[in-house]
Amino acid sequence: MSGFPSGDTRKLVLVRHGRTDWNLAKRAQGHTDIPLDEVGHAQAQAMAPFVAALRPSRIWSSDLVRASQTAAYVAALTGVTVEVDARLREYSVGERSGLTRVEFQERFPREYAAWLAEDETCLVPGAESTADVLARMVPALRSFLAALGPGEVGVVVTHGACLRAAMLELIGLPLSADAAFATMGNCTWSTVQEAEIRRSAAGRGLQRGRAGTRFRVRRRGWVGFTGCPVRAGERGCSAVGSAPPWHGGGQGFESPQLHRSVDVEALPP
After folding, report:
1. pTM
2. Distance from the Cα of residue 71 to its chain's centroid
């Protein structure tokens, strides 16, 4: 049996919401409920036919309006009801909400320095840590995957930072692998799906393509196969990142730019 996902595997399509005014102004949003702006609505409308074509049987969304508005475009084309789940919210940024990066640095210099150093021992008052976010996001995503039948597809509309962290955890990669993954633009998506990994008959470890682990990522309008390090015989997850034939950048639409892929070889213990 191939180590690549078969036709009866369950899949989650993880979508980042469309653009908001605060995205454009580069203000931290967190749990502040900011709606889509005009470009965000256009992005969601353009994304929806591509995701709807995957024939999802379930659609889940963060309860924040920028995500639920985005999900509504997919729901309109599929007839599937959006199920709202607060566990899919973005990181809470606490008292940083509404601040630009410059304002963050001026108002919270110690916390800003810690943020640059990826040190979560000094957070802005009221902000969530990555551990806090993973404690709600990952169980939610696993429960959604488990709720699907064989071969079914579920759509999850959520937020960029929490999605990035949760995807790494879900496919078994450390947070230090973050730099190898493209930042998801507004209304781009990644597909996470089950994969079964087997040992070779000779028992010599893991075979490439069958049981080897291969990570392949392309930046911007990125497409590629992303494997996950799981033990032989276990069920794991793989991910495929996708974008429509436009990229929803901060200033609007632009042509996709495919960059050289980053390949990493890894074997589980």
Report:
1. 0.75
2. 15
